Amino acid sequence: MHSASKPVALVLASIVVYYLFGTIRRFFLHLTSSSAVHHGPPNRRWFFGHQRGTWSSSRRTFSTDIKAIQYVMRNDFIYSKPPGMQNILKMILGEGSGILVAEKTQHRVQRTVMNPAFGPNQIRELTRIFLEKSSELSDVWEARITAGGIGEVNLVNWLSKVTLDIIGLAGFSHHFNALNDRGGQTNELNKAFTSIFHSAGWSSVWLPLRAALPKAIQPLLRAVTMKTSAEVMQRISRELFMESKIYLAATGEKDTGLSARDLLSLLLKSNMSSNTPANERMSDADVVAQVPTFLIVEHETTSLSTTWALLELSLHQDIQSKLREELNSLPTATPGMDELNGLPYLDAFVRVVLRLHAPITTVNRIAAQDDVIPLAQPLTDSDGTVHSEIPIRKGQTIHLSLPSVNTDKSWWGTDTSEFRPDRWLKVPDSVQAIPGVWSNPMTFWGGARGCIGWCFSLIEMKVLLFTLLRSFRIELSVPKEVLMVLKVALTQRPSLRSEPTHPKLPLIISVEELVNDAVWKPFLVESD
């Protein structure tokens, strides 16, 4: 053998051995698993298992039992994110441990430091930024309307831009100017987001393969598929961190203007506060890691939820008209957070959207030790034995599907899949047991790891709907039969069957005459 080919052969042999070992190990766990006697869906693919795109199948415990979910949720020191998911997040977030990566004590310390930035009073202040950017999007759309009184927009594209602008200002007091297409950081970030989150390739074999590879091999794949995008996001995150740190050093904690009340500034103030013990402060690397976390959570999830909301309105014109009538009842174009929360039909509409279209569809946890999970509903195994609990082995994966809980007929009734906002005007008593962090759906998860930015996303979404529906009537520009759901990573996005690898939702917009025509007065976001 040629000397130059020996290292290549050695690497290939190592990979083969690694996967053979993993296959044998998984086969042994199949045979000895405590869940082997439990009923599950028939495995129609001997090699791929139930998920066609994976390298090989593995046994997981899937549950929608509320008591089991509560137990896993409350015992976050036992049940943490699987190593594969941790590795993927670290690729994106960089060297530090963002709140999405941090586990156990580190996570609780970070959450304590970050909580002040996401309180109701803070979101109340940031609502003016949501309104300003939503109005800017409305102006851009209005300029696209032709002499015939209608225009066409790709909703996915425009909502991604406006939510990026919003998190830029509300998160870092930074102007990305995505709505103006001025290039620079905006184009870089958009390309990075597209590469990491919008590519259908994430739903293929690469995601589980990357998660399964040892750390020594992972950089090879990262260099091919993610390295450039992750580095762009991390570099911009460091730049935003330094901007905020320099600004605070120059102005001090006495500055109470809106520029000093963005999420990152408040996080830095809380982290440097004399009330925060030195051993509980985050390192600079950990603070920097929160920047892409904010970008991912507050940009991507809100954009996705609002996309589904406007799609549903385009499909249900009666609901759109009823919602617009309520929005027009406010005598101002610049309502505050409390005024928006006081609109019952808007609240009901948002709740049904988030119940049926959870931005994140799956929560996976891996057991750090042998354990027993209690059940609310007894389980009968293949031998006929009734169980009130499930034994779990160390290293076993627990798969929790949020949409399954959000649409379970035993909780929501036989019409659970029907898009009916009126349901929330009289919620079934049974759903009160669902342990979500917000209301009854599991959309924002719950417990110690519940979404810290749920209030931010909720009000941002309400503001976008308020502004756009008062300005425009929206309709689908294509037959609904050509729509499809594009599953990317752990999310679901609307797309077209003719373009199945990219999220897209074309809408027809026309100007809507306001019942209460209020003058828009731009806010000054640099000072009070």
From TrEMBL:
Cofactor section: heme
InterPro entries: Cyt_P450, Cyt_P450_E_grp-I, Cyt_P450_sf, Cytochrome_P450_monoxygenase
UniProt keywords, alphabetically: Heme, Iron, Membrane, Metal-binding, Monooxygenase, Oxidoreductase, Transmembrane, Transmembrane helix
An annotated Gene Ontology molecular function: iron ion binding
Pathway(s) the chain acts in: Secondary metabolite biosynthesis; terpenoid biosynthesis
Keyword Disulfide bond found: no
Binding-site positions, heme: C451
Pfam families: p450
Transmembrane residue ranges: 7-28
Compartments where found: Membrane
A GO cellular component annotation in the UniProt record: membrane
Source taxon at top rank: Eukaryota
Matches recorded under SUPFAM superfamilies: Cytochrome P450 (SSF48264)
Family note: Belongs to the cytochrome P450 family.
Annotated protein name in UniProt: Cytochrome P450
Organism expressing this protein natively: Lentinula aciculospora
